[in-house]
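Hey,

The postdoc asked me to send both predictions to you directly instead of through the lab channel. I've kept everything plain text so nothing gets mangled by the mail client. Protein one:
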Amino acid sequence: MAIVRSVTSEKIINGIKVKTSELAIVSENNYSTNGEYAIVVKSVDNCVIKLNSETTDRIKIKAMTSVLIVPDKNRIDEYWDEIQIEKGACIELVQIHANWYILSSDGVKLW
């Protein structure tokens, strides 16, 4: 299991300076976002991604495996407690006033 990150950068998120990377490849069963622009999840059967509202305000997630996305507080689109995406899917989420919203999603992939 591993996390591969791009070059370190600093961002201001929710008024807090966050040391992060723009891109990350996640190969772990559990991961909490940390201000990345985008993450690719691969090389594990299942992964739970926790949306950390303290360090992240916008994230793109590309799933190369089954991924469960869970907010740290409130709901996604004010309706869902979690979102399940499958291999090949991609979703972009943004945090606005402590709520997570889906900005775009390419939907279900059929093979």
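Protein two:
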Amino acid sequence: MDFAHEKRVAARLLGALEDGTLSTVDTRPLAEDADPALLFLIIRWLRARYMGHPAADGVLGRIVALCQLPSVARAVKAGERDAIAGWFTETYDPGELDRDAFIDIVVDKLEG
């Protein structure tokens, strides 16, 4: 299966945080509905990609705003402990994957 719907949803969440396409209020349901491992890995990927980047303040600011919501903070913590998050962290350097490859790999692993 190609998990096209799941990949679109994951890409929308990533885009909301990376590009600011949605407000924190509008991003909240996406984050709360996301698999905790996916949420953790999206945040980890963005932090790695934007370290030292000129747009880092905006991206990291959106992450911080979202993670101030208790439900999201709990999900991120749970995702960090997930076996798939551990697998991804041991297997890949987030900086080596572009946005589409990252989404493909993570969603295929989570859904497969």
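Summary for protein two, as requested: The two ends are 8 Å apart (CA to CA).

Thanks,
C.
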